[in-house]
Amino acid sequence: MQTNLTEFILGSQQRLAMPVGVYSGLHLTGKTVAKATNDYMVQVNAILALRERNPSPFLQAAMDLSIEAEAFGAQVRFDEGEIPTIIGRLVTGREDLTKLFAPKIGHKRTIVPLSVVTYLKDHGYGDDGFVLGSIIGPFSLVGRLFGVTESLMLTREDPELLGDLLKLATNFLLRYAEAFRGVGADGIIMAEPAAGLMSPAMLARFSAPYVRQIVEPLQSEEFSFLYHNCGAKLAHLKEILKDGAALHHFGNPMDMVAALQQVDDQTILAGNLDPASVFVSSTPAEVYQQTTDLLHATAGHRNFLLSSGCDLPPNMSLDKLDAFYQAVKDFNNT
């Protein structure tokens, strides 16, 4: 379906860019990643600092794929300069599942991105653009509760248990996504990277239908879902598109030009400059060139939104991001 966000992208006379990343803004505010993942105003200040440096119509809450699992009771490791990670497995079998209850919305750090969105909307920062929340996808949440490798094994060894875990995760994420809509978000980025580790057939069974159960009741003209999968390849595309999200965001493994040739001109795809090899390891001049190359390769597709292929890491220097935006500006001026 078309939403305000998709109409904005498709109707733009210039190429748009939406790199995914908030943590690099901490270079401008002098705060740590640990602070940003626990204090919504630290995150807000980083978002606004990035926007002041490189104006953009897109404002995003930080991507933090430990929040939901922590709310269920999983242990999290916090390091000052690193994005939080889940430690161990909260669920190891059906007996643990019977003791597991979905948390209330706002429990532990689930309140942080909600507060980020609330602040930005209440203070008018979304009046001339889009404020986006961030949640994890259902299979990726199960992977953080049960273990990613173990969850992949369940697809064949115990699909019934996996289905029960996915139902629990989906029901919680539906309520969480609804909370973002309730505080005025223009949409949310749903990160489902673990699904990219499955075959297309397994993704069609254990990810896409559950994503759709979240998208279908909530997506509207005013509220868009942006599905993100940094591991998906061209073979996954057909099944992923069945989830109903307004926009699909992919990482470096996706052949973006081939993908655009397989969809109609109203289906928006985004990505896919690799954070590690482009934004971290390359020089600003190389970032500029690779950004320009991707813009030229996708020049005939207004349904392509230029972006990083995944969340930009905290240790990325901002001159790389400046080069990215300069390449977009120069391309639009030619």
Helix and strand layout, with pairings?
Blueprint: H1 4-11, H2 26-29, H3 33-36, H4 40-53, E1 58-60, H5 67-72, E2 75-79, E3 82-87, H6 94-98, H7 111-122, E4 130-136, H8 138-146, H9 148-157, H10 159-182, E5 187-191, H11 200-206, H12 208-218, E6 224-229, H13 237-240, E7 247-250, H14 256-262, E8 268-273, H15 275-280, H16 284-297, E9 304-308, H17 318-332
Parallel strand pairs: 1-4, 4-5, 5-6, 6-7, 7-8, 8-9
Antiparallel strand pairs: 2-3
Can you put this structure into words, describing what you see?
- There is one protein chain.
- This protein has 334 residues and is α/β, with parallel strands linked by helices.
- The chain has a single domain, classed as TIM Barrel (Alpha-Beta Barrel).
- It is 48% helix and 14% strand.
- It is built from 17 helices and 9 strands.
- The strands form 2 sheets. A 7-stranded parallel sheet has the order 1-4-5-6-7-8-9, sandwiched between helices. Strands 2-3 form a two-stranded antiparallel ribbon.
- The model has no long low-confidence stretch (mean pLDDT 96).
Overall pLDDT = 96
Strand content: 5-15%
Strand order across the biggest sheet? 1-4-5-6-7-8-9
The percent range for helix content is 40-55%
Can you tag this structure with a few keywords?
single chain, 334 residues, alpha/beta, TIM Barrel, 7-stranded parallel sheet, two-stranded antiparallel ribbon, 17 helices, 48% helix, 14% strand
In short:
With 334 residues, the protein is α/β, with parallel strands linked by helices. It is built from 17 helices and 9 strands.
